[in-house]
Structure formats: structure tokens, C-alpha cells
Fold this protein.
Amino acid sequence: MVPRAPIRPGPASTAIPMTPRAGPEVRSGPQHAATIVAMCEILVARSDAPFELAALWEVAAGLERYGVAGYAWGVAWVGPDGSLETHRATIAFRDDPRREEIGRVETIAALVHLRRPSRFSWLGMADTQPFLDPAGRFAFAHNGELARHRRLRVAYRAAGRIHGKADSEVGMRWLEDAWDPGRPAVELLAGLHAALGGSANLAVLEPGGVATVHAGNLENPVFSFRLGDIRLLATGVYSLDRSLFRLVATGARERRLIGRGRAATL
């Protein structure tokens, strides 16, 4: 196994520790229950001018391909009236027959989630992201592992609020309860990560278009960049280097690593 070189951080960011990896592996230790390290990819985008969702499809396809995340997908976007709308499918992005139809939707901001579950038994619509808050206050997506989800899962299930099997749904329930329009999403996502622990990236899209990503995953860094007039945040195809820009977003400008433990808002 050959260690990967550390990322050289951009301005106001911190380096991510070098971690050898040769594909999915089993981990154990104080921060990890014995789980398979495999994860989804996340993309958020925002522009001052409306754009078609199809403008994101090339990047989404690259994230799915190189991140090995072709097991389900979903997208949330801001509708004409400023409210949030979603499309989710339990098949790969590349295979979704509605991809072209959804691509013609115009918006000013979107959140895309490309799924690679930690356990294949977790596949199903109830665990397909992004999740939409029942009150329409935000859409939420996650990758990685929320290590302390089991205790809360028991309480949420008893209340009839759990429908799937994955840890992400527990994170969604926590955020529904904690959501406060007077607090910035940066604080709420940091609180969620502190409460549930683990190695995880967290993303929310709010009505009106504000999008925030909390970078907390040891294995999958988050980058900000620009493609044309669209500003984006994306996970790094599960690679601790800048392969995102060599393989997926080749024309990206203003590239910057979001340091682990920090957040970025579009």
C-alpha cells in the first residue's frame, strides 16, 4: 500500500492528514466502530443568475464514476417561489430515465447527493438523499459515518420518526429538532457533528439558495471552486489529493480546500 501525498491547502485552510488507503477497508478504534469505509459524494452549487440543473450533470457524473457512488442519487433545488423541491432515485444517476427532464429545471442553487452506502442492506428510498425537512426549512445530505447514531435511533424509532436503516436519517432527525432560523447553518452542522461524532461531511440547502457544507470527513475532503458563473462545493472523489480537478472539474477556477472541521457557505 502506497501512502498518498498530503493535500496542499489553499488560503485559510488546513492540511488533511495523510492516510494510506487501498479501497474500502474495515476500521476499528475509539473514533470508529468496526465499519466499512465507503461513502457517498456531495455537490452543492449556487449562482446569482438562474441555471439549468443540467449544467451540473458533467460534474455529478464524474463524482459518481470516480467516487464509485452509483447506487442511488438525489438532488434538491430552489424552486421559482424560493421553496425547496427534490428528486430522488434508487438507481444510479447515469441510469435515471428522468435525468434529462430534471436537468431542464432552472434554479439558483442545488444540492446533489450520489450514494455509495456503507452497507448494501441500507439501500432504499427511505435512506436516499437529500432529505427534505417536512416543514420545508432545509434539505440535508451527509457522507461518511455518524458514529453515535444508535442511541438516538432507538428514541426516534420509538417516536415513529425512523423509516430507513442508515445513520444519515438519524442526523436528519437531530437537525430537524435543532433547527433554528436565528442560527447560521454553520453552527447547526457543527453541533450535529459534535453530537453524533464520526468522520462525516454534512451539507444543507435552505430556501432562497443559501448552501453550507461542513467538512469533517477524514477520507473525503471538500473543495470550493467556480465553473463559469456557478460557485460550487464538492467532495473529493474519496481521494486525499486534488484529483477532483484532474478527473472531474477540469475547468474549475478559484480552487480551494476547505479545512477539516471548518465549513463553507455559498
